[in-house]
Amino acid sequence: MTAVVELRDATKAFRGVPAFENVDFALGRGEVHALLGENGAGKSTLTKVIAGVHTLTAGRLLVDGEETTFRNPSEALAKGIAMVYQENSLVPSMTVAQNIYLGGEKAFNRLRGIYIAAQQFLQSLNFHVDPSALVASLGAAQKQMVEIARAVHHKAKVIVFDEPTATLTPEEKRYFFNLIANLKAQGVSVIFISHALEEALEISDRITILRDGKLIASDLTENFDREKIIRAMVGRELTGEIYGQGRAATRTVRPRGRKVLSVENLSMGSIVRNTSFSIFSGQVTGIFGLVGSGRTETLKVVAGVLKRDFFHGGEVKFEGEPVRFRVPAPAVRNGIVYVTEERKAEGFFETMGIAENIYMGDLARVRGGGLKVISMSDAVDLAEQWRQKLNIRAIDPNAKVIELSGGNQQKVVIAKALVQKPKLVIFDEPTRGVDVGAIAEIHHFINDLADQGIAVVVISSYLPEVLAVSDRILVARQGKIVEEMEPKSATEEAIMYAAVH
Amino acid sequence: MNPAVEKPHDSDVATRRDKGFVITQELIVAVAAAVLFVLFSVALDNFLTPGNLVALVRNVAVLGLLSIGMAVVVIGRGVDLSLVAVMAVSLTVSIVLANKGYGFGEALVIGLGFVLVVALVLGFLVAYVEIPSIFATLAVASIVYGLGRGVIADLDVNNIPSDLDWFLFIGRGSVLGIPVSIWLFAFTALVLYLFLRRTGIGRFIYALGDNLETARITGIPVRPVIVLQYIISGLMAFLAGAVTAASVASMNMRIVNSTVIYDVLLVVVLGGIGLTGGRGGVRNVVVGTALIGLLLNAMTIMDISYTVQNLIKSAVLLLALIVDALLNPRDEQTAQQGDI
User: Fold this and answer.
1) pTM above 0.80?
2) What gap in Å lies between CA A432 and CA A462, rounded to an integer?
3) So what's the ipTM on this one?
């Protein structure tokens, strides 16, 4: 087997600190190669070197057996290496078709022509996206499809996917896997980074695992199983701690406490439609739903982040009192906090350190908190307390939050919310983009909160997560909560059936 | 030993910043100001005379007061282009009323009331109607100036009635050999420094400049804080207006059509307060004011024409931005999107 792309003894360092070092990596023709590892293991940096975003500090990059250095991504693209980024790189103000053909336009670009071509092209990939729709109007999954379509269109012989399935619904995932199989049949090599181990086991030919910037294992997929991968990724046994098989059936389910929140006939635009449900204290309520099912929006209305319809918007009762929060501030003071799924966009303050981020939550907790004279030593004490409680790892306590890894960023966001002493905590996708070790810690922490008698809501589109943490499962579909299940009797199939039909 | 330090997380090792001496834009500007001061003292005959230094300091005080007002808004990711209009017209209101027979103290209070009304309207437009601050303040600046020229006063220049020595003292007097206007600037700078650094609201301004959506979800009362920013900038404009009026015993509304507002922006940006919000503080304003004040004064002594002065100021700004970009390049890692 000749390698299409090969790294030999490669090291990439940022300001002298290696993101990965002495890694040997080979990608064969028509091979699907899964790259696994915890956040910060160096996976993305490795693939970015291959895609020409970064250049190697030491070692060699070989493409088709020839030593190459890419100065920028377009040089890599010219050699047939395309990368689909985790956070997409589409032009939001252009249409789907324009994005796919971006950079390849003739001097006089005929839109009708490219719409027709894009329509046929997207059909051939089995992607149902309107080519004349603006990218800004698409959902996360559809954007991902456009991004993939663009890479395929460039006739790339190597395509790198950085967490391609994180935002896809299970149905879309199937399409995506079929697409990868098609690409493979055409002799295209695929590298894909994922946190979902089942996916890697299912579709890849070869698995490479990185830990702390070093190559730990690289072998054919047949020679791996879940436990082996996790052991290689984290260097310890973790499977039992998260999503263990049969875990949902064996653990004790917490009984319902007081009714903390009751939502009746809530409506907001066309996203949330007449939904009704209740949340109880002292237990974790898991809410599952596909993208577009209105689960995030419903809970955002509860927390005052979004506003429900003015007429016929329904009723929200918190601790028996009807409430209507127009902004999040009064909701926070009443004890409802929302931990966002969009960490970067609305989760933390990037110019501030860990301590100050957490302290902001504390200041905003009470009315008139702004009038307080602040003391940095209070902030540092508070941060230290939460750093230990949540095991936030940072060498430099003054590091800005944006410089931390995904898992640690998430913990800061959680700490900032929990410092507000909530009675109802809403976690929206609490483990998205978080490494395996941190997932276990965050789940553990969610359970602790429920044990303390706090009402906890966990929104997730990852079924094993819903089954592993919930004491009660609600399923959302088309803007409504449509079904309630017991974790003891619920199965992945049953939940998915309720969410789709 | 801290347990969190013992077990570093790999990516956090990679993103550790080298602590110690960091060359910031603020430092460059401070050094540049010091060098220029020495240079001008040696090279320009009239620079180091007491008369000139007092003039320098007086101009710096007005510029500094306006810049602090601007800085508070810029830190909250806004911009206030109405500062100069509010400064000129609010004092004109007071002076016109005083000339019509009101007591001057009373007239000043009414002028202050005018400032508050403008600030509340502005704050409402930006915070609740959600008009971008650059447009809202541009429009309000024109309206305020139009009111001043068309409704409030008949003339551009309005003189302060005689026998108001106590008021003129603000602009002309000195305490312990230092002009009152400088005391005023120093005092205001100190108060706002403490306000921004040490109070919850001060930190909220940074928070919402950093990320408005996060600030909202965290439960910070975002809208009242935005309104407060415009009230503070309005008060600064009024104070600057008072110092100006007191030093020349009149208020000339033509200043609205001059480049003062750009000088103010120059001070803020040059000092190192990014227009992206959430960064910088009063110290940056002080060094920026010192540099620009020095430059303006020296160029006036050297009898450089107004147009060439603008050219030099712009060149200095561009130079500062270039030096900053060279010394503090984009962080290769955090500027990249996605996981490491």
Assistant:
1) no
2) 9
3) 0.80
